[in-house]
Amino acid sequence: NSTHVPSQHYYQNAHWLEGWGRSDIFTLATCYTSYNYDEALDLEILEGRFFSRGMSTDSNAIVINEATAKAFNIDDPLNTRFLEPGSEEDPDEFYPIIGVVKNFHFESMHEEINPVAIRFMPGNFEGMLVIKLGDGNMPATVDFVKQTWDDFDVEHPFEYSWMDDTFDSLFETEKRTGKILLIFSLLSMLISCLGLLGLISYTTNQRTKEIGIRKTMGASVSLVMFILSKETVKLLGISALMCIPAYFGVRAWLQNFAYHIDFNVLVYAFVLLVVTLVVLIIALLTV
Fold first, then answer.
1. Which pTM was predicted?
2. pLDDT tens string 60-106
3. Which of 132, 159, 192 represents a domain boundary (last residue)?
4. How many domains does the chain have?
């Protein structure tokens, strides 16, 4: 069981490291969980271990990610303790680090992987059960889990969600935008291709006599191709200039994501080259 799963906003708890002053207190994203959370989420242990039923001291232990060790310059995590501030009645509590897990995304891809602490809290029913299902009959498995839940708790209705669906919901805006852009892009490509074909056909019809005379006078194929395609190539050049704002717009949009691809200008250059070749091929076939 756990208070959170990746894609949810974790608690922000106050901590500091042993040896630091109270003025150095900081907040740290914190998830409370129990045994086997690492196996359910396929977390990779880099140092130490995860919570174990055979270790009674794990009730006051803590597991951190790589980002936490880096952010607070923790060179020897397994010999480091976190402190949680107490009160006048309750003393400060020490939480030794027993393990370091590889960085994992627990927030949207818009965010960098931030420091996170995983604390032990057995019997925590304010959160949820995290279940890793294998391949097989999912509906039957869900029915079995529901029946098991109902056998133990008849007061609270069984509710469930898939973690991949929860992650996908973080990018609903991007998916809707992508669908709209795809539709308009396809329409633009269709209109552009029809316009390009119409322009070349119009140019050819307008210059049929001129081309015939030039060929009779011994004009080369390359010269005729140049005559037929030069106006179209000019328009392609103007189109290429109009793509420059689009290129920078896409790059600016990608900056909203901490993890993104590098949108290379060569993509635009390649598309322009392909379209130019299509124009030249059509002109050649016309000749």
1. 0.62
2. 899 999 999 998 888 899 999 888 776 666 677 888 999 999 998 87
3. 132
4. 3
